[in-house]
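--- STAGE predict ---
source: upstream dedup step, 1 unique chain passed
mode: sequence only
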Amino acid sequence: MAKTRNGARQYADVHTSSGLGEESPHRLIQMLMEGFLARINSAKGAIAHGDMEAKSVYISKAMGIIGGLNEAVDIEQGGEIAANLNQLYNYINLRLLQASGENSEQILDEVASLMKDIKEAWDAIG
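--- STAGE serialize ---
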């Protein structure tokens, strides 16, 4: 849990200056997930419009968000569920690299679907 708080706190520190204020660690993780999905949608739009520079920027930002989410996973205290989540985040990152290289909206749909499933489970905790 300490790792989750640290990851969430880092996110809060970055966004406090942007007017988001104090949010619970649970809500901050939700915001990261929402931000990931928004970046994936933007990357898909960029691919559809042939804007490869924007696609790269959005996928890079999505990968950064996955990195932040993965840092918040406490494998020691979270056991098998945390280990599985860590593996899933690593898989998503690999697929994002592949989507970028192949300009694949289909792969972006896949990772968005995975994140929606994770987010749905996370939202149910709240």
